Each structure stands twice: as C-alpha cells, then as structure tokens.
C-alpha cells in the first residue's frame, strides 16, 4: 500500500503491496457516463484477505462502502462519494473456469464480454445476451443485468459473498432475492464469485450466429456515445424509451447531457456533461412523462451514495 496515499482511517490496515489504495480519487473516468466527483477513498484489493481488512476498517469507522464494477450503470454525483469505493479489478477476481461440462465459475471482476467469449469457446450456449453489456460479473449480479430477453440470474446457481464485516458465505440461488435490476442481498454484501450453469451445450457456429445477431440489434438500437445504459426501468406494460420517443423528447439537452436520438432511455454525454446536467434532464423527462402520460418512471441506474428520492 502506498503510505502517502493513506488517511487516518485506513493508515493502519494491513494489505499486500499489490492492493491499490488512493484518496480523493476521481471517479468520472472510471464510469462509462464520465461524470461526477471523487471518492474519498478508493481501493482495488488484491485478495480476499485484503478486502476483508479494508471492509472491517470501513465498518469500524462507519465509512460507507460502494462496489464499483465497470461503472456502466451508475451516476456519480458532482460532489463525489464520501466513502470507500471498492473495485474488484485485480487479476485474482478475474478468473473464469468451465467445470463439469456446463458449469462456469466466474470471479466478480470478470467482464461479461470475457464470460461470453469463454462460454462460446467451450460450446456453452445461452449466454449470448451478455454480449455488449459493458459490465462485470459482480455488477451483473448486483443489478441482475438483462438484455435480449435474458437475465443474469437465469444462469446463477450460487454466489460467494462477503458481508461488510468481512464474513464469507456461499448463497445458493434459492437463498437470494432477485428481481428487475436488483439482487437484494447484494445491496449490502459484496459478491466475490458466482457459479453459473449454461442453459445448453451447442455448436460454436450457432452461438456465434446469435452473438452476431444480438450485436447487430444493439448497434442499431443503442447509442455509441458515453452513457450509463438505460436510465429508467420499463414501466409495467410499456417501455421507457418508447414513451420518451413518443413525447418527442429525444435530443432534449441540459448542458452537455442529451437524450439520445437513437434510444429515448439513454442519456449521452456530449463531452463535458456534469452530473447535475444529467440529473436535471432526468427530472425533466420524469416530469413530462408524468404530466402527459400519467406514468411515474423510476430510475434503474444507480446514483452513487444517494437515494433517488432525495434528488428527484
Ligand atoms: N423504442 C422506441 N423508441 C426508442 C427506444 C425504444 O420506440 O427511442 C421501442 C422499441 O422499438 C421497442 C421497445 O421500445 O419496441 C423496447 O426497446 P428496446 O428493444 O430497445 O428495449 P428496452 O426495453 O428499451 C431493454 C433493457 C436494456 C437492454 C435492451 C435490449 C431496460 C430498462 N432496458 O431496453 O438494458 O439492453 O432491453 O434487450 O430493461 C440497461 O439495463 O441499461 C439496458 C440498456
């Protein structure tokens, strides 16, 4: 650990030299949307033991903890985060292995694209919906990531987690409560690793064909610019993107934050957007949809360190 970068709260924590620990670390560049301020503390632990020590120190000092994956589904406020941001990015969290034919074991830091690639190489079909989701296994567990009709929890058999006080346990699928973009247990526990089951064994050419189809669909229907993915959950029986589109709100802009012209449920960063611009745009979209359609859109993207109801 870099001693000069430690603060009082973490200065006595025993961690290995490979663990990254920083103070006042800018987070914007660690997210896909690219807005927001710094984290008071930022760490990339190199091992389970280091993670445990850091979490226990945070708990001892009452410091809030946030697990950041690829930062593809989160908005960092301009004021940053007055807590500890943990990223499981070290290679020890990035192992993926095929076991017993149709099972995969994947560390929380594995990128979904890598997982998808490994499944394809091993002739395991049914993970293609993960193609193009710019997240990690940890993020996909926390959010029950979904696309193209598939959900991450369709695949999950068990999750190894660590509590914020450093205890480790393995939760089987039926012990976990998951739904639309949420796994409740992971609101305050850290996913370390997941056991997955591929829906089927399949010819690689068939898997590749489906990957290409999904890729094409995504390229056509989602923007390439920096974004945080979909902003709102789809309301019962409709689609947030379709509603925003129908109301002519695509292209609406606050500062450098703009409703994508490609998909109404994406806000893109035109270059120098601030989190406040994005939040103002979200408020405007919600207000218009509520006024003209009588539908309350609820955000699906996370707001780091705050509850949506505090800012909406
Ligand atoms: N639509 C419009 N105009 C738009 C956008 C969409 O009319 O500007 C229509 C489409 O034509 C389609 C319907 O709305 O009939 C749904 O659109 P789409 O197929 O793009 O799916 P979505 O429900 O908007 C969901 C997920 C995405 C995921 C896609 C692809 C949510 C909130 N979003 O989008 O997830 O990538 O399906 O399967 O559930 C994310 O979670 O961040 C995310 C991007």
Number of domain units = 3
Q: How would you characterize the largest beta sheet?
A: 5 strands, antiparallel
Overall mean pLDDT: 96
Order of helices and strands: EEHEEEEEHEHEEEEEEEEHEHEEEHEH
Q: Which compounds are bound in this model?
A: uridine-diphosphate-2(N-acetylglucosaminyl) butyric acid
How many β-strand stretches? 21
Number of helices: 7
The helix fraction, in percent, is 25-40%
* Spatial separation of the terminal alpha carbons: 39 Å
User: What spatial form do the alpha-carbon principal axes imply?
Assistant: globular
| Physical arrangement of strands within the biggest beta sheet | 6-7-15-11-12
Strand content: 25-35%
Description:
The protein has 312 residues and is an alpha+beta fold. The chain folds into 3 domains: 20-86, Uridine Diphospho-n-acetylenolpyruvylglucosamine Reductase, domain 2; 94-205, Uridine Diphospho-n-acetylenolpyruvylglucosamine Reductase, domain 3, CATH 3.30.465; 223-310, Uridine Diphospho-n-acetylenolpyruvylglucosamine Reductase, domain 1. Helices cover 25% and strands 27% of the residues. The chain has 7 helices and 21 strands. It has a 5-stranded antiparallel β-sheet with strand order 6-7-15-11-12, with helices on one face. Strand 19 (257-259) and strand 20 form a beta hairpin. It is globular. Mean pLDDT is 96; it is low at 2-7. Uridine-diphosphate-2(N-acetylglucosaminyl) butyric acid binds at residues 73, 147-148, 221, 229-230, 233-234, 239, 241-242, 245, 263-265, 300.
């Amino acid at each position: 650990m870099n001693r000069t970068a430690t603060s009082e709260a973490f200065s006595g924590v025993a961690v290995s030299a490979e663990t990254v620990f920083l103070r006042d670390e800018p987070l914007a560049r660690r997210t896909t949307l690219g807005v927001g301020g710094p984290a008071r503390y930022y760490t990339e632990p190199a091992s389970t033991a280091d993670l445990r020590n850091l979490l226990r120190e945070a708990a001892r000092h009452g410091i809030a903890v946030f697990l950041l994956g690829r930062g593809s589904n989160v908005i960092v406020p301009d004021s940053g985060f007055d807590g500890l941001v943990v990223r499981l990015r070290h290679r020890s969290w990035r192992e993926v292995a095929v076991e017993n034919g149709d099972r995969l074991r994947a560390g929380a830091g594995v990128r979904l694209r890598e997982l998808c690639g490994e499944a394809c190489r091993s002739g395991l079909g049914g993970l293609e919906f993960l193609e193009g989701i710019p997240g990690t296994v940890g993020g996909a567990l926390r959010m029950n990531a979904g696309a193209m009709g598939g959900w991450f929890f369709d695949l999950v058999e068990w999750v190894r987690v660590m509590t914020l006080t450093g205890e480790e346990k393995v939760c089987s699928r039926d012990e976990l409560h998951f739904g639309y973009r949420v796994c409740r247990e992971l609101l305050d526990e850290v996913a370390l690793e997941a056991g997955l089951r591929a829906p089927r064994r399949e010819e690689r050419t068939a898997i590749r064909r489906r990957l290409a189809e999904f890729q094409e669909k995504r390229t056509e229907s989602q923007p390439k610019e920096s974004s945080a993915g979909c902003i709102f959950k789809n309301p019962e029986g409709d689609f947030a993107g379709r509603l925003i589109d129908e109301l002519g709100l695509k292209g609406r802009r606050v500062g450098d934050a703009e409703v994508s012209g490609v998909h109404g449920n994406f806000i893109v960063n035109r270059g120098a957007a601030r989190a406040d611009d994005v939040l103002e745009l979200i408020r405007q979209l919600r207000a218009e949809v509520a006024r003209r359609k009588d539908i309350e859109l609820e955000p699906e993207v996370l707001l780091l360190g705050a509850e949506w109801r505090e800012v909406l």
